[in-house]
Design brief:
Blueprint (H helix, E strand, L loop, with lengths): L12 E5 L5 E5 L4 H8 L7 E8 L6 E3 L5 E16 L2 E7 L5 E4 L4 E17 L4 E3 L7
Antiparallel strand pairs: 1-2, 1-3, 3-8, 4-9, 5-6, 5-7, 5-8
Length: 137
Amino acid sequence: MRQAQDPANLKSTYIVIDQSHKADSISVTNSFWSDLDRDYGDFKGNTLLAAFEFTADWSTWEVHPNGDEIVCIMSGDAEMILRLPGGDRHVRLTHPGTFVVVPKGTWHTARIHAPTSMIFFTPGEGTRNSEAPPESG
């Protein structure tokens, strides 16, 4: 059995969960994202648990081709925009604990209506970002 560790803060220490469900706590540094790719094989089969704070709209859209992403609001007011085949779906998150599941392969972005804190459970392998995603069909 793994030993319990001291408490950590999700704002400065993210968690990588591998395919066997082992959780590694990783300190957030300036080289965090490149370290993830290097240390976790381009993040193949891994999931990231992280918290972020936002005061402005996201500047890009993103897509996760290898699994659903869970986005949960802890405070604030954010509107997730999901680019679906039938058109964009807007999901407003305003109450702590409210979440949305972003389906695998769905481009998404966020509009921030008030300072916001959110937790993300992200299958990171193959994640892409774009200023302009494909139009919905």
